[in-house]
Specification:
alpha+beta, 8 strands, Yope Regulator, Chain: A, two-stranded antiparallel sheet
Length: 200
């Protein structure tokens, strides 16, 4: 990098698509600085997805989170157990860290795993994860109720990307859902109890 390159207050160079950006989010709780990686998420969500701003940003602007609820359909009925005629409600959570540039995308099924099935599900998940080329399933235990939930997780790092951060988030979102559906079908195919639990 040219030593004479002028960096903005976020340490970005003039080649960066969010160089010298100055965006403030104002709410009843006050005003908060919208930093570049959160700005990337906000640009994708509001401009490309045409959604209302529902991103929660920490007071220091270093962390943000977007929570949405989505009804998801499966695939081709001729080849899938979880088909386009089936519906499940899932929670989509995208977390952004300005310090690291890490963007996590979590997809949760909105019902806990029955205790009597958790061990078998964990084994099935380990086997299925080896077949996925993108993302992975894991069992998440809540701190409060100790209930276990099935979630899908994938992430990207935005740090170092000068142009294309919004595209990277869009790809993260789209590919996560594509491989999430693939994984659910693999799990349904490997374990009838999982299929019954998912589609009941």
């Amino acid at each position: 990098m040219n030593t004479n390159t002028k960096l903005d207050r976020y340490g970005l160079t003039p080649e960066d698509e969010f160089y010298d950006s100055n965006l403030i989010q104002v709410s009843d709780d006050g005003a908060v600085d919208v930093k570049p990686f959160t700005n990337s998420l906000m640009t994708w969500w509001k401009c490309r997805m045409n959604q209302q701003d529902s991103i929660d940003i920490s007071e220091d602007g270093n962390n943000s989170i977007l929570k949405t609820e989505i009804t998801l359909n499966g695939g081709d009925p001729d080849i899938c157990i979880f088909t386009s005629e089936d519906e499940i409600d899932v929670d989509s959570i995208i977390e952004v860290s300005e310090d690291t540039g890490l963007v996590n995308h979590f997809i949760y099924i909105q019902k806990p795993i029955p205790k009597e099935l958790s061990v078998q599900f964990a084994t099935d998940i380990m086997n299925i994860n080896t077949e996925l080329v993108y993302g992975h399933f894991e069992i998440y235990t809540t701190k409060e109720s100790k209930e276990q939930y099935l979630r899908f997780r994938e992430n990207i790092i935005l740090k170092g990307i000068s142009v294309g951060k919004v595209n990277a988030i869009e790809n993260l979102y789209n590919f996560s859902y594509a491989y999430y559906t693939v994984g659910l079908n693999l799990l349904c195919d490997s374990n009838k109890e999982f299929s019954n639990w998912l589609l009941q």
